[in-house]
Amino acid sequence: MSSQSDVCTGITECLRNVAEEARELYLDKQVPVLSAPVSPLTFYRQYVAPNKPVVVEGAIRHWSALQQWDESYFRKKIGDVKVSVTVTPNGYADAVTDGKFVMPDERKMSMSEFLDKLERPDDHRVFYIQKQNSNLTEEFSSIISDVDTHIDWGTEAFGQPPDAVNFWMGDGRAVTSMHRDHYENLYCVVRGWKKFILIPPTELAHVPYELYQSAYYREKDKGGFEIVDDEATGKVPWVAIDPLSPDLDRYPQYRHTRPLEVTVHAGQTLYLPSLWFHHVSQSHDCIAVNFWYDMQYDIKYNYYKFLESVSKVVSAEKQ
Ligand SMILES: O=C(O)CCC(=O)C(=O)O
């Protein structure tokens, strides 16, 4: 009869094989770039069904935002509008810091005040518009006609309209730490560039995805920030490893990952499939709009949730 530890070793081996076989059988070594959008059926067959990222040129060519969105236009059209802005001491909002999952300080300010912060960055505070509650439709409704409110070939392929349309604009120091979402994501860069580091969900056994006490930054009256526990939210699953400088002594299994890097430039759209781990950095003043299509009722999501629970049982058993 096999012992529990033999079973765990066997499962670890299987999880490692999933990662290797996916790489050998169907994953691309680099994110491909299409020179124009393809039909919804082709998009579905070649990218959505196999859960593979792709960059598409020209999908947002007709958006007037590509020509119009700059500081003077924003000041004129929405300068007085109050928008939600996050503030951190280091650019890392929603990231593991000092062993906690720390969320940013969040505040409302007029768009003009926010633009002032970007024009004259301060050494101790990083400002980023990154509220992911469909802020484009909620807070930027006066400029919504400059973009489309969905991507037609994506909506048709996913079989539903987007659940959220988000506007992102910020400081070049703002970084989104490694995490993953249950959304199919069409991420359109309007100005500047965004750099994505991507790891497929088939490699989840190698990515440390753990529970952390949630907390948030609070700016102190005399300057500086403190980290305050958020008891109401409790523990949150997140990835502590920084792919720009991975701590391999602490997370040795991470060396088995094969991250893909892709820079998405103005006018390009990245299809970031659900469940891929991603880390995002950006040029200063970069502007983007993304569309999230919720996929948590999808069979893939449930399959990967199952893989995840198996891998958690194995790592708990090893400790
Ligand atoms: O642009 C960013 O900073 C993060 C984007 C992201 O994480 C997402 O769209 O899921």
Automatic annotation (TrEMBL):
Residues 132-308 form the JmjC domain. The keyword Phosphoprotein does not apply. InterPro entries: Cupin_8, JmjC_dom, RmlC-like_jellyroll. Its EC number is 1.14.11.63. GO terms for molecular function: hydrolase activity; metal ion binding; peptidyl-lysine 3-dioxygenase activity. Coiled coil: none annotated. It is an enzyme of class 1 (oxidoreductase). Keywords: Cytoplasm, Disulfide bond, Hydrolase, Iron, Metal-binding, Nucleus, Oxidoreductase. Signal peptide: none annotated. GO terms for cellular component: cytoplasm; nucleus. Its cofactor is Fe(2+). It is found in: Cytoplasm; Nucleus. The keyword Disulfide bond applies. It comes from the Eukaryota. This is Bifunctional peptidase and (3S)-lysyl hydroxylase JMJD7. The lineage of its organism: Eukaryota, Metazoa, Spiralia, Lophotrochozoa, Mollusca.
